[in-house]
Amino acid sequence: MNWGQEVSEEAAREQLRIFTEAGGTLIETAARYGEGQAEAMLGSFIGDTVARSELVVVVQGGTTRSGSRRLDASRRGLLDSLDASLSLLGTDHVDLWLAPSPDAAVPLQETLSALESAYVTGRARYVGVSNYSGWEFARAAATASFPLIVNDVEYSLLSRGAERDVLPSAEAFGAAILAWGPLGRGVLTGKYRGRIPSESRGASDVWAPYVEPYLSGKPQRITEALCTASRGLDLQPHELALRWLLHRPGVASAIVGARTAQQLKEILQTSGAPVAEPIAEVLDEVSVLQG
Question: Which residues form the NADP-dependent oxidoreductase domain (predicted)?
Fold first, then answer.
């Protein structure tokens, strides 16, 4: 997400090297990231920094690469977006292609027809959707004549709304969840406790509205509980937050957006072990959904 905006080409290459050397495989990108620069960077790294066969490339389609970043889930918009992504990435297929958030101006069947075309022609090995509500995913999965294997949604200790209907609908149709924002838009690292660091997204005019909803009220109390628990376990808050998330039912992976090599290294040091049950119960209790 940050490549081509906050992350230079040299820094992005270093991130990819660190990630793959640590055993990482899944890279998620989108047409709108850096107005196409993120895809172009990744394409230039494939075959040089890393072999194509070592990556699981996930691409979100259906948004413009410049201007207003307009959503376009029409058949033409989606397929044009896919072809442009393949060209920039320098590959003949993506491993997972995602339709964007539902487009009120486009019938569902039209969006599904684009996904089906990509799937049956092999330009996408698998297909799914992004930011669909539970009922929207269920309707799409029940209508499609091909498998939708993923719903890509925000999910973290600070954003558990997906548990109401998104996770159950995915489970009912044999799909998985890709969780974006797993660190609560950076808040679950603990770096915003008591202040907003000058170099953080929260201090940016562009990103501040994205971060601010998680800085007070219940999110603040959840973050404090996480930091207290992690201190007792001799862990960093982000480690505990990720371990809690990765063992939630139906979650296949977490999409992190590190801006620096050091941030990425710290994230990759997170153990895959589940959180001890008493700690998990406390985190569940303090962050439980209301209503």
Answer: 3-271
